[in-house]
Amino acid sequence: MSLPENKKLVIACGGTGGHLFPGIAVAEAWTKSGGEVLLLISEKQIDALASEGYDHLRFEKMPSVAMPSPLSMRMPMFLLRFFQSMKGCRKLFKKFGADAVLGMGGFTSAAPLLAGKRLGLPTFIHESNSIPGRANRLNAKFSQTVLLGFEACLKHFSGARSEVVGTPIRPSVASRPGREEAAQFFGLDPEKPVVMVMGGSQGAQRINELVAAGLEKFEAAGIQILHIAGPADYDSVKPAYDAHPGGGVLKGFLKEVEFALGVADVSICRSGASSLTELSFYEIPSVLIPYPYSAEDHQVYNAEIFSKPGAAELWSQDELDEDTFADKIIELVKDEGKLKVMRDEMSKLAVPDASERVCQVVVSTLN
Question: At CA 103, angle to CA 97 and CA 104, rounded to 5?
Fold first, then answer.
């Protein structure tokens, strides 16, 4: 990769872990190659939690609100805050000496991208999902190039310059700890199967309920559960683990997700693009339960990219219940032949150099 040669990149990546973690991954790759980065994040709790431990990177918080419907009474306030954010970004970019602006998606990227465009800077948007939301359809209008996680998304940006680069993975996640080390990190038995439950950066209430209800069955089957419930659901799930202390390990939020991925034999999770990228990198057979209210059902389409070749199973949340959920998971965990096929197919979907690909596209416009 051509070096940034002290070039300065702004990355707008706040709002969700699906935006923030890939943004951090690009920042790590950019700084490693000699550049300087400014990351713009939101004021949400998840951004504060996820950015901990990256003291070598510069973060700036910026206020943002989701865009309401055009006829909403909240539209005037949205527009006021949007233009305030854009004005603040222009001032910040000039002071930083920005050479380019990259948005990782969502409405938190809109004001920075428009500010960068009006300053004459090269601008880029990254869309990690198979179907873009309305925010990135708008952001594409402010962007010189649209960077995509999945090839399936190309058709949605037919009028824009687009390039498939994959979704970036943080270096810490890409470190691949060994199973023994990962099991020791959680106090798990490396000889017993481990099912990792991960609802995404903000958790998944229904998945958490289903897993908690099946703890007794999992424990009886000799299966260990590594459950990352999310800060909001931790307290509601904890009584089930207190009642079944041999059922596994419960976490509210886990920064060291590489250890969870390193010990997991099977994953139960939503189908956000960032999570799927990490699962494919670790070749983990997965049960994907898409968030049923995701914009334009994009999580369903994400999951189908993995379920159709057999890398994962796609289960609808509406069809799951406490009586049969654990039994279905246990049946899958015990089917080693099927798990092998799933691991092989997962490996084919991995894009380990996505961060470098993103940087290369940006650098090519600066030389």
Answer: 135
**Strand residues in the chain grouped as ranges (E):** 8-12, 36-41, 58-61, 100-103, 123-127, 145-148, 162-164, 194-198, 224-228, 248-251, 266-269, 286-288, 312-314
| 8-169+352-366 matches 174-348 in fold | yes
7 phi-psi bin (left φ>0, alpha ψ -120 to 50, beta other) = beta
By the 8 A CB rule, do 18 and 46 touch?
no
pLDDT over threshold 90, residue 49? no
The amino acid sitting at 4 is P
Alpha helices in 33-74 (DSSP H): 45-50
CA dihedral of 113, 56, 129, 195, whole degrees rounded to 10:
-160
Q: Indicate the DSSP class of residue 223.
A: P
Return d(Cα 315, Cα 290) in angstroms, integer.
8
Domain boundaries, the chain: 8-169+352-366, 174-348
Contact 276, 294 (CB under 8 A): no
DSSP H helical ranges for 71-214: 75-96, 110-118, 134-139, 179-186, 205-213
The amino acid occupying position 274 is S
* Higher pLDDT pick, 202 / 141: 141
- Which residue has tokens 């649209």? 146
| Fold designation for 174-348 | Rossmann fold (3.40.50)
Q: Is the dihedral of CA 159, 304, 230, 170 positive or negative?
A: negative
Q: Which residue has the higher pLDDT, 200 or 102?
A: 102
The predicted-structure confidence for 80-114, as pLDDT tens digits, reads as follows: 888 888 999 999 999 999 999 999 988 889 999 99
Coil vs helix vs strand at 38: strand
Quick: pLDDT tens for 297-348: 889 999 999 999 999 999 999 999 999 999 999 999 999 999 999 999 999 9
> CA torsion sign, 112 to 113 to 116 to 117?
negative
Q: Residue 20 and residue 47: Cα distance in Å, rounded?
A: 7
Give SS3 for 322.
coil
Residue 293: other Cβ atoms inside 10 A: 8
Q: Quick one: CATH architecture of 8-169+352-366? A: 3-Layer(aba) Sandwich (3.40)
